[in-house]
Amino acid sequence: MLEAREITVRYGRQAALDRLSFTLEPGRTTGLGGPSGCGKSTLARVLSLMLRPASGTVTVDGRTVRGWRQRAPRELRTRVALVYQQPRLAVDPRLTLAEIIAEPSAAAGRADPDRAAALAAETGLTRDLLTRRPHEVSDGQLQRACVARALSLEPRYLICDEMTTMLDASTQAHLVAVVEAYRERSGAGVLAVSHDDVLLSRWAHRTVRFDRP
Amino acid sequence: MTEPITAGSAVHPARAEPPAAQTRRLRAEGLTVSFRLPDATVRAVSGADFEVRPGRCLALVGESGCGKSVLAHALLGLLPGNAEVSGRVLLEQDGQELELVGAPQAVLARRVRGRSIGLIPQSPATHLTPVRTARAQLEEALRELGAARPRERADELAERHGLHPADLDRYPHELSGGMAQRVANAMALAGDPWLLLADEPTSGLDRPLVDRAMAALRELCDEGRAVLLITHDLRAAERVADDVAVMYAGRLVEAGPAGKVLHRPRHPYAAGLAAARPDRAFVPIPGMPPELTRLPDGCAFAPRCSAAGAACAVPPPTTGGVACHHPLPEQDARGGGGSPDRDPLESRRA
Ligand SMILES: Nc1ncnc2c1ncn2[C@@H]1O[C@H](COP(=O)(O)OP(=O)(O)OP(=O)(O)O)[C@@H](O)[C@H]1O
Ligand code: SF4
Ligand SMILES: [Mg+2]
């Protein structure tokens, strides 16, 4: 289980999340819907250990998180992967797509070129794209690389925050199928955050809706 | 011979164009863009023919990486140094014709960008300079456009685009995705251009905000502006577009009235795209996207097309707005779904 208990996050004086509790189960896809600005992305960042809440606790498979971002212990950090809405803000512009996909495994000392190549193919990246840098590919092509990167360390939990908003209908269906195939073979828990209720109804086992705080 | 795919040129009988707008038009003929890389050439746009005119919205849809953003940037001379552009893009306005392909940067900056053609770029947050507030950037754009009182004008624009003037004092990282989008919209319209290129202007917005943004685009058209809308949101396209052009591997493969192309597509790729929508079959088109560095001589969709045959090894001609050797028949062509068209095909053909 990936669990958030009584989480509060404030931006300035405004509370984005107010003593919110949420559980992500392994093996299932949970949808998270609600209007713009309701705190969905904030929760996604807390659950992926990217944002330290003002109060409350997060536990990953029973272990309480005490450090956030780079200070989270590696084995907790690599248990949760985040794919986020804007791929251009999520990658190092100096790296090639192949390097972006391989980056987490290399950093963990588990470089595995075959797996990186297989993930690239699975997400629909053709060979010609892998030697290019982010400014030489389209936004959607870069997002495919971000999905491949997120799966590279076989996370136990995958947080997809508006993963498909910059993708055409066919690529959206394709990447959702890639994530679902991964979930089925690994037993990972998936959180699908989206504004699109129709998409969540096709993708998630159950959907939680937030309202504006 | 092959007739060009001409999108956006059908005359709309019901909506009269304002008189001043009649002389305005943007026409692309054989627009082609390639990028030179050390070991390959990327053919991002191949021979695109289309036309945009005041009062109309043309939506451009297609697989990620098929060349939509490159096409929009090519119109404004905003491509990197390794890009080669050929073909023609004629901007007709005020009784003059300006060729945009190869036009000097000074001419584009002085006469075209922001003044005649505004661009709302894809992923707007990444186009704002991180170290300066939204206000500083908007005011600078206004000064370049010769605005007399940039500060007041910026506040005015902010309010018109659903932002509080105080929001402009934030740095880009302090803006939510939706706010960054609204700043980009305000910037694109600051110089009152008659043609707006909107590249994915709604990604990151929820349904009510998408609906509002689409209504605003429609209003711009109805005021006599022209809109080229690039979008993955086919439901949004359905609401606002008069015409739709479908792009695959750098080519326009089908174009025509929105209701027809979105609901009764005839090109196999267009049909596959329509069926992949989450409110329809939600199945991806099988196979891998094309490699634009190694496009085949014939139809680029052939490796993924269930209708492909021997004829497909040569480039398909374009007939009736569809570039395919074996298009789906007109009467039972489907992309699934059957919601009523915004505007019946017959009235447009008048
Ligand atoms: N600077 C560049 N050098 C080489 N290739 C490039 C460059 N910029 C873009 N490309 C390639 O050109 C093609 C078209 O890219 P473009 O950004 O127009 O796609 P798009 O249709 O807008 O996709 P998306 O829907 O993902 O935004 C892509 O295959 C991309 O990899
Ligand atoms: S030309 Fe041939 S391969 Fe291409 S879309 Fe038409 S039928 Fe399919
Ligand atoms: Mg694009």
TrEMBL record, chain A:
InterPro entries linked to this entry: AAA+_ATPase (IPR003593), ABC_transp_ATP-bind (IPR050319), ABC_transporter-like_ATP-bd (IPR003439), P-loop_NTPase (IPR027417)
Keywords noted in UniProt: ATP-binding, Nucleotide-binding, Transport
KW Nucleotide-binding (keyword) present: yes
GO biological process per UniProt: transmembrane transport
Keyword Transport: yes
GO MF assignments: ATP binding; ATP hydrolysis activity
Listed Pfam families: ABC_tran (PF00005)
Signal peptide range in chain numbering: none
Domain ABC transporter: start-end pairs: 2-212
Gene3D superfamilies: P-loop containing nucleotide triphosphate hydrolases
Source domain of life: Bacteria
UniProt record similarity statement: Belongs to the ABC transporter superfamily.
Protein's UniProt name: Peptide/nickel transport system ATP-binding protein
Organism of origin: Planomonospora venezuelensis
From TrEMBL, chain B:
The protein's name: Nickel import system ATP-binding protein NikD
Family annotation (SUPFAM superfamilies): P-loop containing nucleoside triphosphate hydrolases (SSF52540)
Catalytic activity reported: Ni(2+)(out) + ATP + H2O = Ni(2+)(in) + ADP + phosphate + H(+)
GO biological process: peptide transport
InterPro entries named in the record: AAA+_ATPase, ABC_Ni/Peptide_Import, ABC_transporter-like_ATP-bd, Oligopep_ABC_C, P-loop_NTPase
Segments for region (Disordered): 1-23, 323-350
Record's keyword terms, sorted: ATP-binding, Cell membrane, Ion transport, Membrane, Nickel, Nickel transport, Nucleotide-binding, Translocase, Transport
Recorded topology in the membrane: Peripheral membrane protein
Family note: Belongs to the ABC transporter superfamily.
Compartments in which it is found: Cell membrane
NCBIfam families: oligo_HPY
Biased composition (Basic and acidic residues): 340-350
UniProt GO MF annotations: ABC-type nickel transporter activity; ATP binding; ATP hydrolysis activity
Residues of the ABC transporter domain: 26-274
Subunit details: The complex is composed of two ATP-binding proteins (NikD and NikE), two transmembrane proteins (NikB and NikC) and a solute-binding protein (NikA).
EC number(s) stated in the UniProt entry for this protein: 7.2.2.11
